[in-house]
Amino acid sequence: MHSVLHYTVQPGDTLTLITISIRASAGVGVKDVIAVNPEVNFDPLSENTLLKIPYYSAGGHFIYQTRIGDTTKSICEGLANTATLTVLDLINHNYAISKHKKTLDLSKLKVNQVLSIPYTPH
After folding, report:
1. Residue 80: CB partners within 8 Å, gap ≥ 6?
2. Which partner from 75, 81, 95, 99 sits 20 to 30 angstroms from 37, CA to CA?
């Protein structure tokens, strides 16, 4: 798994505003973003620039609530830019933290089922 979020700079964005808005979930600061984007000119930061936002300071997972039609594969494909998650990563992580291992069956997801989506440090 890779732990990088891809973010496209919007009009009015600054690097400080971007890191403040995602700090709670990604745990990164300005220096972290600069370090993983050596090819980007930050002075000035141009709109539509694609930035990599590292998750290596974060806590390790975020919560996802399933929707109609979700499968483990569709969840992983939908989160590819955020968590670069494989089906096996998703299953192993949720099994490891489950208090109900004997009844955990991710092959038949229910609507509004809460899953933990893992990501790992670089």
Report:
1. none
2. 75
